[in-house]
Design goal:
With 70 residues, this protein is an alpha+beta fold. The chain has 3 helices and 2 strands. It has a two-stranded antiparallel sheet. The chain is elongated, with a radius of gyration of 14 Å.
């Protein structure tokens, strides 16, 4: 579908950036649940994959952040 194609184009432009389904839904005039389902389909088909961002605070404690798609 056209929505999947547009989503894939946006994800390609946002490679390595934080993915927020709500924002993608607004950009594509769709609900965030549909966007999340489409991202899951793209991931299961091997077109994209998720990586976890990991950083540390001042004390050296690990902080896990949102999931990213690449």
């Amino acid at each position: 579908p056209e929505l999947m194609e547009k989503l894939l184009q946006i994800l390609a432009l946002k490679t390595g950036e934080e993915i927020i389904f709500y924002e993608l839904g607004q950009m594509l005039d769709s609900d965030n649940e549909t966007i999340e389902q489409y991202v899951n389909i793209l991931e299961k088909s091997g077109i994209i994959f998720r990586i976890q961002s990991l950083s540390t605070d001042i004390k050296g404690n690990e902080i896990k952040k949102q999931t990213y798609c690449q």
